[in-house]
Amino acid sequence: MVTEYRGPGNGFRSFLSTMQSVTGVKAMNFSNLSGWCFARMVAPNLAIYKAVTLVGLLWVPLWLLVITIIFFLIRFCCQLCGRLLQRRYLKVYMAMTLYLSLTRITSMCLTPFQCFNADRPRHLLDTRIVCDGDHSTWQWIGVAGFIIYSCGIPLGFLGLMTWSKRRDQLAIPDVQAMVAFLQSGLEPRLHQFECIFMFRKVLFLLVMYLAGESAASTVVKCYCIMAVVGLFWLIHVTFSPYANRAYFLLDKIEGASLMAVFATLIGQIGLWSSADPITLKNHPIYGQAVKLCVYVGVIGCHVLFLLLVIWGFLRRLVLKYFIWGPAQRFLGQ
Q1: 181/92 Cα distance (integer angstroms)
Q2: Per the domain annotation, does 38 fall within a domain?
Q3: Residue among 92, 88, 90, 89 nearest 100 (CA)
Q4: For the chain, what is the total number of helices (H) and then of strands (E)?
Q5: Chain centroid to CA 130: how far?
Q6: Under a CB-based contact definition with an 8 Å cutoff, are residues 154 and 199 in contact?
Q7: Domain range for 165
């Protein structure tokens, strides 16, 4: 349920709530409506989807400006103390801000497309808004932001890493400061693969927003997301981008996660097919059999993923205290 911002109140609690809305931090989570709350404080009469779209367009420039100001203030204080803060740390913060803001910006830029059919096409976040007139203009504005940020950020990182590798500059500290966190855990020959994962996040959001909100769109979303997951699952199986440590454990975890999502979507389609009244009337056992297969298969895939993750955390301890340690003591005797 969306609640309207009613302005700042008195006291520390109101100040804290206002800062949480501005920064997007709420109970260790990032609120998807924080940009709207901030825009409501600046322009209370602005329509919700317009406010969210504008904040999505201004999100990256504002945060980069804030980070730059804070960095140079800290750098000035360090110079007063006789220490020099290198500028590559600023590049680290900027690169991580772009990476972490990708999904937030994508969802904001695609907000004008959240319409559903009632008596008239209305916006999901505020049913008083009718999706016609200048709404299409704001959709084009959102598309422009999507192209600039949602497509530009992954392509920018991909171009930077490709350009640096061709000139053998990946080991330079300034370049490492910007892209090292994107290459962690990946094989050297596939060090740009994190950009593929970024495009995957963008495609997921694109499917969820462009399909709209209706009974038919739910089916469309399910099939489209299944196609996206299947495509990236095939890409993962073909390239196996993660480093071959711990007997390909990272690749196994990634593959298991994609398999769990794919199985969940297949299971949902199976449940829809078993819910047909004509099918249930002609084949009463079919529905129960499909439900049993879906529950066993989906739960099994998710359990496999969780077991691989738990094994990744406990692997060293188990090997050290239950395998390597006893084996060394046995050989020592």
Answers
A1: 9
A2: yes
A3: 92
A4: 14, 4
A5: 29
A6: yes
A7: 49-210
- Hey, what are 41's tokens? 């404080």
Phi-psi region of 156 (alpha: psi -120 to 50; beta: other; left: phi over 0): alpha
44 backbone dihedrals φ, ψ, rounded to 5°: -65, -20
- Extract the tokens encoding 234: 């095939």
pLDDT tens digits, one per residue of 240-284: 999 888 889 999 999 999 999 999 999 888 888 777 776 666 767
> Among all chains, which residue has been given the structure tokens 């991909």?
158
Q: Which residue's entry shows tokens 């990032």?
A: 30
Residue 7 scores a pLDDT above 60: no
Calpha distance 36→4 (Å, rounded): 10
The number of distinct structural domains making up the chain is 3
For the cut 50, the answer to whether the pLDDT of residue 34 exceeds it is yes
Cβ distance 21 to 31 under 8 Å? yes
Residue 217 lies in a domain: no
